């Protein structure tokens, strides 16, 4: 009783976004299915495919193919985990949780940022595990600074994909969220060159690829390993997606909150 009162008082002193963030992290961590899917799936994908193709040599200027494939699989797996987090929103909409949120001081933008932060926290272990597997299983070797830079760049690049999952969860019916998430993820993986290099695509598809956040997710992750010029174009593309999706998500939150009052 005393502990519960103390916890309530402590929560009362927190800003609403921070309190919602902590509460959501606890709830998400208890969702065993989502946690296992978001953490284990990228690892399994990398281990399986690296064992099939990872020992092949490449002729891309002496760059280790296993390292390139590690980044691609980390991007593909984390993409699915980032977008999958938004599917829970559809359940919350249907359960009446939004009706509770509308009577709090939590604003739409704060809600989206807090929800995106929760998913970003849950995605980070998946990226780290794939990189560890790249070292242990794939035999990838690089300076520690390159590993860290690749990890941080990929993690930051996942922000628009995370918000995209939230947007789908806010705007689409619960029954349609999962198949739409899978479809969007597959399209972005294909056009983003996560399955095979975008340079092998026709010119028109290469142009489309460079508009995809997934393309720059992998490109920014490869930059610390491959080197060359920093892909500033990718930063602009990811920023554009983030702004547009945040606006769309805020509108979706208002719409979902309004519908929940009926």
Automatic annotation (TrEMBL):
Q: Does the keyword Cell membrane apply?
A: yes
Question: Which domain of life does this protein belong to?
Answer: Bacteria
Where in or outside the cell is it found? Cell membrane; Membrane
Query: Membrane-crossing residues?
Result: 34-54, 66-91, 112-135, 147-172, 179-198, 230-253
Coiled-coil regions listed: none
Q: Where is the ABC transmembrane type-2 domain?
A: 33-256
Which family does the record assign? Belongs to the ABC-2 integral membrane protein family.
The cross-references to PANTHER family, in alphabetical order and at most eight, read: NODULATION PROTEIN J
Q: What is this protein called?
A: Transport permease protein
> Species name for this entry?
Microlunatus elymi
